[in-house]
Amino acid sequence: xxxxxxxxxxxxxxxxxxxxxxxxxxxxxxxxxxxxxxxxxxxxxxxxxxxxxxxxxxxxxxxxxxxxxxxxxxxxxxxxxxxxxxxxxxxxxxxxxxxxxxxxxxxxxxxxxxxxxxxxxxxxxxxxxxxxxxxxxxxxxxxxxxxxxxxxxxxxxxxxxxxx
Length: 164
Prior knowledge:
It holds the Pfam family HLH. By secondary structure, the protein is an alpha+beta fold. The chain folds into two domains: 63 residues, MYOD Basic-Helix-Loop-Helix Domain, subunit B (Irregular), CATH 4.10.280; 79 residues, ACT domain (Alpha-Beta Plaits, 2-Layer Sandwich). 56% of the residues lie in helices and 23% in strands.
């Protein structure tokens, strides 16, 4: 019987030794995850430090989530509040039309071209370029009859009424 008790006692000692080794490895892994410390810490200090660090990281995470939401709100607002900008340059017998709009602006470029043609212009080139949340349209035209020219004020008025 004594032999059986001694054997179970040895088993308990081996199990306890393995448990302590395992705990030591886990504490070492935990210590490695913390920011560098100036000196060695006891196990209770290590656990307190880890707890404080996790709480600090949770607060930082919440702050970043709030910043993300604010930035997304600003970005959504920026896409919806962009009024179109129309710029017309009179180059003698040529006319250059620049239109900058948000991507949410819906209109037909063919309407712009029709207005220019009705005002006596012939389209030389028309381009569209998307950059970020904006679309930039450039139309270069020349007067069909150079002596008569193109009525810039009338073109500006009609194009403005089209985009507003």
